Each structure stands twice: as structure tokens, then as C-alpha cells.
């Protein structure tokens, strides 16, 4: 009874928050952020399907061509980065620091390669956003995704640097797990963009 009274007397401030969710707060925050991003992409896809389904405009516009083969190779590059970041996470969970560093470095380089190929595609594609409505939607969708890639690369760079500095452990690796969730979202969203814009 006395021990409880002493403990109560030593406690200052509000009581600890009640946690009803099994999802960690950073993970939950990232998932909610991703939901909001999906809504943004949804707005652009609405415009895309309006052009193709409602107005029956040709896709791509007459006189333009999309580099499906290059985009396909670029898709394989980005999907490979999902495998390497999963390897990095699995490695640190098992205490394998080499796998962590190699996986993160590979993920960053693959993402950077994807972005470089996308920019090179813009340079040589032969039409501008203001040329046609189709061009506007093409650059909007791929550019929006490219902006997410840039944000993801910034996060990956920080995680990679921290990995080489000895951060993260089998017990404490959430700092790389949360950016990994975002990167998987970037990869998954590109599959949707690639399929609708380049393949269909």
C-alpha cells in the first residue's frame, strides 16, 4: 500500500495514453499518409479515364508515341528495388549488417536509375504537356509519381547513411521500416501508372 502511494506521488503529468491499436504510431501515420496520396492519384486518374472513356480521344494522341519498351525495363528496375529493400529489412531483423547496407545501397541506386531513365524519357519523347490533353495527363501522372520517387529517394538516402553509420538493430529498426512502407507504395503505384498509361 505504501509502495503504491509512493509511486503515485512520484508520477507527474497526465496519465499515459491508452493504446487500443496494435499498429505502431509511426506505421499508422505512414499508412494514413499513403491513403491521402492514393486520393491525389485518384484525381489524376479520373481525368485520364475521362479522356479515354468519356470523350473517346485516342491514346496517345495522334502523332505521338509512348516508349513502352523503355518503360517496361524501367518498371523492372523499380520492382527490383522493392526486393532489395525487403532484403535490407529482413537482414537487419536477423542481425545481418552487411545485408542491411548492401540492400539499402542497392535500393537507392535502383531508384536513382529509375528516375534518370524517366527524365531521359521526357527529354526524348517528342511532345510537351501543353501540346494535347493527353500530353498534359501523361506528364501529370508520371510527373506526380516522379515527385514521390524523389521524396522516397531522400528518405532512402538518410536510411542508407544511417545504416553505414551503424544505426538500426534487430530490436530497433522502425526507422528504416517506415520509409520502406512508403517505397513499396511508390513501387505499387507505378505498376498502376505503367499499366494504365503505357499498356492499356
Helix content: over 70%
Average pLDDT, to the nearest integer?
A: 88
Counted beta strands: 0
Which architecture name does CATH use? Up-down Bundle
| The top level CATH class name | Mainly Alpha
Tell me the number of structural domains: 1
Fraction in beta strands: under 5%
CA(first)-CA(last) distance? 72 Å
Shape summary: globular
- Could you please say which CATH topology applies here? Four Helix Bundle (Hemerythrin (Met), subunit A)
**What are the low-pLDDT stretches, counting only 5+ consecutive residues below 50?**
none
Account of the protein in words:
The protein is mostly helical. The chain has a single domain (26-55, 83-199), classed as Four Helix Bundle (Hemerythrin (Met), subunit A) (Up-down Bundle), CATH 1.20.120.80. 76% of the residues lie in helices and 0% in strands. The chain is built from 6 helices and no strands. It has helices at residues 2-10, 25-54, 68-93, 97-124, 133-164, 174-199. The chain is globular and about 65 Å long.
What's the layout of helices and strands?
Elements: H1 2-10, H2 25-54, H3 68-93, H4 97-124, H5 133-164, H6 174-199
Helix pairs in contact: 2-5, 2-6, 3-4, 3-6, 4-5, 5-6
Amino acid at each position: 500500500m505504501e509502495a503504491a502511494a509512493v509511486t503515485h506521488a512520484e508520477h507527474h503529468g497526465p496519465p499515459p495514453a491508452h493504446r487500443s491499436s496494435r499498429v505502431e504510431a509511426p506505421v499508422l501515420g505512414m499508412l494514413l499518409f499513403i491513403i491521402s496520396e492514393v486520393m491525389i492519384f485518384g484525381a489524376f486518374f479520373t481525368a485520364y479515364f475521362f479522356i479515354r472513356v468519356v470523350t473517346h480521344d485516342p491514346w496517345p494522341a495522334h502523332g505521338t508515341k509512348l516508349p513502352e519498351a523503355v518503360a517496361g525495363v524501367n518498371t523492372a528496375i523499380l520492382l527490383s528495388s522493392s526486393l532489395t529493400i525487403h532484403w535490407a529489412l529482413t537482414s537487419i531483423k536477423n542481425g545481418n549488417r552487411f545485408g542491411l547496407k548492401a540492400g539499402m545501397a542497392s535500393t537507392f541506386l535502383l531508384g536513382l536509375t529509375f528516375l534518370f531513365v524517366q527524365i531521359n524519357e521526357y527529354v526524348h519523347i517528342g511532345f510537351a504537356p501543353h501540346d494535347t490533353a493527353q500530353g498534359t495527363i501523361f506528364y501529370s501522372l508520371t510527373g506526380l509519381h516522379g515527385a514521390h520517387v524523389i521524396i522516397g529517394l531522400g528518405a532512402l538516402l538518410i536510411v542508407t547513411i544511417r545504416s553505414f553509420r551503424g544505426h538500426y538493430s534487430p530490436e530497433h529498426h522502425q526507422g528504416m521500416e517506415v520509409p520502406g512502407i512508403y517505397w513499396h507504395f511508390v513501387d505499387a503505384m507505378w505498376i498502376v501508372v505503367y499499366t494504365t498509361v503505357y499498356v492499356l
